[in-house]
Q: What sequence folds into this?
């Protein structure tokens, strides 16, 4: 597609449920990033993929969070047993590659609300 | 904890006044990028600085990367209402390319 696509755009779920967030990067972009942004706050780096590999997963807030990327394209961020503090906008970005620090292109995000 | 801090957190200016936001990292960065996020929108890339002491200009915007590569600034001359938004600096620590930190952001409001 023309830009980074994220789905769903909004997700409301009950505490304790699992959620899966999806990111479709720009075609041909090998680097993919996940961030979390709470209302009025900055972006919290979660994880980055180069191809299908995530070299460092220490940015994930807890072991309830996991992410994967398949085929060097679509990525999913899964949150298990959601808690109210997980409520935020989850942003995905992609760039042409990581080595040359290309600019990141962001999707519109998934607004996650945990009741 | 927060690796990259920005000041001020908020700035309200009258249209036509200048604006500056400062970015400070606790570690040396490999490069610095600047993004703008309009209210309700997502961050949009503005520019990247790579070299120590580098200065780049985009029309009314001037970006600077510090000599130590631990700080940066964005200066807007003669602000316009279209400049409203939150400005973020971002970069990777020099010795950990697998992370990418965004600054805390400076929210700019321009009064017409």
A:
């Amino acid at each position: 597609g023309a830009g980074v696509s994220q789905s769903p755009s909004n997700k409301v779920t009950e505490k304790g449920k699992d959620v899966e967030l999806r990111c479709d990067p720009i075609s041909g972009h090998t680097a993919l990033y996940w961030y979390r942004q709470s209302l009025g706050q900055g972006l919290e780096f979660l994880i980055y993929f180069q191809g299908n590999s995530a070299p460092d997963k220490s940015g994930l807030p807890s072991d309830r969070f996991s992410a994967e990327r398949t085929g060097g394209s679509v990525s999913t961020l899964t949150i298990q047993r959601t808690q109210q503090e997980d409520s935020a906008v989850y942003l995905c970005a992609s760039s042409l590659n990581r080595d040359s620090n290309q600019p990141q292109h962001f999707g519109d995000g998934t607004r996650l609300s945990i009741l | 904890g927060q690796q990259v801090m920005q000041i001020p957190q908020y700035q309200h200016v009258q249209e036509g006044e200048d604006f500056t936001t400062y970015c400070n990292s606790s570690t040396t960065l490999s490069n610095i990028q600047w993004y703008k996020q309009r209210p309700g929108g997502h961050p949009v890339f503005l520019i990247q600085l790579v070299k120590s002491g580098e200065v780049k200009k985009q029309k009314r915007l001037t970006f600077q990367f510090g000599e130590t590569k631990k700080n940066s600034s964005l200066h807007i001359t003669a602000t316009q209402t279209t400049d409203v938004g939150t400005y973020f600096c971002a970069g990777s620590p020099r010795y950990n390319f697998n992370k990418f930190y965004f600054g805390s952001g400076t929210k700019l409001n321009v009064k017409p």
